[in-house]
Amino acid sequence: MTATATSRLSGLPDSPADLRTFLHGLPGVDKVGIEARAAALGTRSVKTTSKAQAIDLAIRMVDLTTLEGADTPGKVRALSAKALRPDPADPTCPPVAAVCVYPAMVPTAAAVLAGSGVHLASVATAFPSGQAPLEVKLADTRNAVADGADEIDMVISRGAFLAGDYAHVFDEIVAVKEAAGPAHLKVILETGELATYDNVRRASWLAMLAGADFIKTSTGKVGVNATPPVTLLMLEAVRDFRERYGRQVGVKPAGGIRTTKDAIKYLVMINETCGDDWLHPDWFRFGASSLLNDLLMQRTKLTTGHYAGPDYFTLD
Amino acid sequence: MPKSATPSRLAVRKTYKLYVAGKFPRSESGRTYLVDGDNVALASRKDARDAVVAARAAQPKWAGATAYNRGQVLYRTAEMLEARRAEFKSLGVAGAEVDAAVDRWVWYAGWSDKIAQVAGGANPVAGPYFNLSAPEPTGVVGVIAPGSLLGLVSVIAPAVVTGNTVVVVASNPQAAITLGEVLATSDVPGGVVNVLTGQAAEIAPWLASHDDVNALDLSGVGDPELATELERAAAGTLKRVIRPSSGVDYTEDPGTGAMTALLEIKTVWHPKGF
Amino acid sequence: MSLFEYAPAPESRSIVELAPSYGLFIDGEFGEAKDTFKTINPADEQVLAEVALAGPEDVDRAVAAARRAFESWSALPGSERAKYLFRIARILQERSRELAVLESLDNGKPIKESRDVDLPLVAAHFFYYAGWADKLKYAGLGPDPRPLGVAGQVIPWNFPLLMLAWKIAPALATGNTVVLKPAETTPLSALFFADVCRQADLPPGVVNIVTGAGDTGRYLVEHPDVNKVAFTGSTEVGRQIARSVAGTGKKLTLELGGKAANIVFDDAPIDQAVEGIVNGIFFNQGHVCCAGSRLLVQESIASSLLDALKRRMATLRVGDPLDKNTDIGAINSRAQLDRITELSEIGAGEGAERWSPPCELPDRGFWFAPTIFTGVTQAHRIAREEIFGPVLSVLTFRTPAEAVEKANNTPYGLSAGIWSEKGSRILAVADQLRAGVVWANTFNKFDPTSPFGGYKESGYGREGGRHGLEAYLA
User: Fold this and answer.
1) Chain C residues within 8 A (CB-CB) of chain B?
2) 10-residue averages of pLDDT along chain A (316 residues)
3) Chain B adjacent subunits, 3+ CB pairs under 8 A
4) Residues on chain B touching A37 (C-beta within 8 angstroms)
5) Which domains are seen in chain C, by residue range?
6) Which residues of A are known to be catalytic?
7) What is the SS3 assignment for A9-52?
8) Which of C9, C112, C276 sits opposite A47 (nearest CB)?
9) How many angstroms separate the CA of residue C308 from the nearest CA in chain B?
10) Which residues form the Aldehyde dehydrogenase domain (chain B) (predicted)?
């Protein structure tokens, strides 16, 4: 661990052993309890005016994402256009928070988004596995930023984390943060691979201690992506981290969130766990693609009073 | 020297005192009453109070001993009981009844590490929880004992094998105190069984109303009015009350009821998750 | 005002058709009584219906009907009794939304609880005991267990239909017939249950419902032709019943009050512990005999835990029981509100520090904000007496032994909670707690297979599970 990394916040663990002690000293998480709490929050009934308000907020929180081998400039341009005007038929519909693409697609997206206020995020650091030498990861990051990305979604080395080499993961995040420069750093924990809630809590704190601006659940490329209890746990982590160190960190669930109903459950979760301070696109994002169209359909239902159909919304 | 005849030997008599906290004290009242020519301690309410204190003090450790250990100790009691066969006979107890009492004691001794398996178990709740019910002793039991040795054994053994401690009001004082001697010489910790001799009508109400007694066994109360009065007094702290309907035949298979009546079922829940 | 307010989301009450008045359900028929009383919605004090007040002669009729029905009901093969109970369980499932709304109307509990907790457990209880009816000889209670006869059952107002299920399902499965008296302030769901019995073609007299107040309950438990008395309610009334039943040979089970300790160790899963504390004391407005009303928190984490608890309490939504987002509904009655208010004032008067989150209470109806008292000691009345409301007393401890000692330092012994991530500590503490139900790293969980009941002055006998059969068999 580097001295520069640890000097940013006071009271940080300053050796690998300390870091381990710190992370393992965090309170445990009871699986049944946290899942029950997340499910209970999911039973909140959000109707009428609250629903309209929630849908617009959710749209503004979307990181509209395409991360396919088949991505082309044409696809990315279309997606970026949609990010700016999700519902061409309704000018009151807000833009999304960001477009999220592979580094190679950053210049294409940047050309569309420049000056719009919609952020441009790029996955870097040998996404999704993270299995590459550090220099490659750093170069990946610097390229993306140089090409116009103002947000970097990095992956942690889950292998190192599961092997107990927390300092390795910490140092990588610090290095990527430095390479990302002014860009905001989202740290993907890949919670589906961390397997236990205790690990998710530790990884969340590890990422925040190392300087993450956001902690993000998943790449979307493994079997288990964002789940309500995992997101709840990460919201608790950012809440507790700010209370302890005074620095606010954002949360981004990604993968598997497809419906308005699901999105609203997450908003309820923020509302009742962290409160108003996180109810903003600066502090909460949905990593999603198909979610946006469902939000738009529900939005139209509320404004027109009848149910909407998919043919009336653009595919991307 | 003239050869003199051997003088006939004068027997050493036993003094029947109370059995409390592993000791054999006189009644604090200094009172005795005559039974078959013997002066027997006539227990007072204060003796009952002291006996409850002794029983309460002994209870956690007795309940906390392993079931195996309690079984061993109670089996030892049966051995000592068998050894006193002649003495019980000399007190007028039929040989067959002494045998039955010993056998009953052995039967109960064997229950120590089995009753929890029979009375408890896992409950298949509809959720991700470990859920286990297990019996625990109710605590301190006041026992108004029946007169026969078999009856006496049949009310004490189920109470103590399950981890309770008892204050027994005995109506057959010599046999009861002799049983106390058996207990005192067989590794049963002092205070686990306390035996008071005297009048049930005098002592039992103090046990029935005592705040630190958890259960009351009225098996030996013959007078139905007294039994009802005691039952009513026991309601003050919601004691568990055993009141057999009538004329229990102690030679019959007692079943597990006498034990389960003095057990509390505790159910523990715990979530299951990685 | 928060950025994200939830608009009102009321469950429709049109699913419940209330008649202006209800009679007694005796021998399969609804009939009038001489007197009546009114039952109100505690959330707005509006009268819901007028209900018959059963006098001694009505109770006589009900017991006689149950006695007559006992002959044939107890002679039915267990498999036939089972089918009646399965049928009842199914009807309860089909009518669960209606009954949930009804329960929230009459009781004041939030619809999310009546819908997600009470009604599913009610149906599950009947399903569970239905299956026992033809398997009693395998229950470990002897080769040929026999029913007792007529059971007189008196239930409280906190879980009206669930307590009815806990009483009636095992009684019927074992071949007994019943006369049940619901609580004075919550008679309606029992009367709707009577209709369920008719729908199921349950033979007349097997279930009889007599509504009324304390006197009606007294006639019932003291009735000479009742063989079994089962009561859930306060320890004081339980004591009176135990006295009145003395010498009669009636079998008695009592499920009474509590003052449960919820013990939080410094190695607890904190966020779940906070949820468990909230669930422990604010579930059902704290009208729960097994509520975790004494929080025992390890001193070393007390202040941070209390901060987290207060933060969480600030998100509790108090108000309209029928709103799907309501967490804490109405206090069941004026009398109960008065008692909660009085004990809380005593707590403050004795020097404990009182705190409630800011919360707007409706103008009409009976309401009490979720409240905690800190700086409470064992000597305070609010640490010893059952408040039966959304009021938590917070005490601290230093060592596990001290926690156990304080937890057990009460005449009650119904339930307890333990929060710790250390298995051996949980098991050791669970062993030493004198309570019938111990929830470790959870709280207020119920299941028909899991026996429930107290030590000491919390009563005797168990309800639920195999053990629950014992109370109804000879």
Assistant:
1) 124, 140, 142, 235, 238-240, 242-243, 246-247, 249, 254, 256, 411, 426, 430, 433, 435-442, 445, 447, 449-453, 455-457, 459-460, 462, 465-467, 470
2) 50 86 97 98 95 97 97 97 95 97 98 97 95 95 98 97 97 97 98 97 98 97 96 98 97 96 98 97 96 96 91 83
3) A, C
4) none
5) 13-256+456-470 (3.40.605.10), 261-440 (3.40.309.10)
6) 153, 216, 252
7) CCCCCCCHHHHHHHHHCCCCCCHHHHHHHHHHHCCCCCCHHHHH
8) C9
9) 22
10) 39-242
Taking an 8 Å cut-off on Cβ atoms, the answer to whether A31 and B274 are in contact is yes
Of C139-148, C202-211, C335-344, where does mean pLDDT reach its minimum? Answer: C139-148
* H or E segment to which residue B35 belongs: strand B32-35
Q: Does domain A3-312 have CATH number 3.20.20.70?
A: yes
Encoded amino acid at B132, one letter: L
- What confidence category does residue B246 fall into, taking pLDDT thresholds of 50, 70 and 90? confident
State residue A9's pLDDT score. Answer: 58
Which structural domains are found in chain B, ordered by start? Answer: 32-271 (3.40.605.10)
B169: left (phi over 0), alpha (psi -120 to 50) or beta: beta
Nearest CA in chain B to A34: B273
Distance from CA of A78 to the nearest CA of B (A): 43
What is the tens place of the pLDDT at every residue in C37-47?
Answer: 999 999 999 99
Is A33 an 8 Å CB contact of chain C? yes
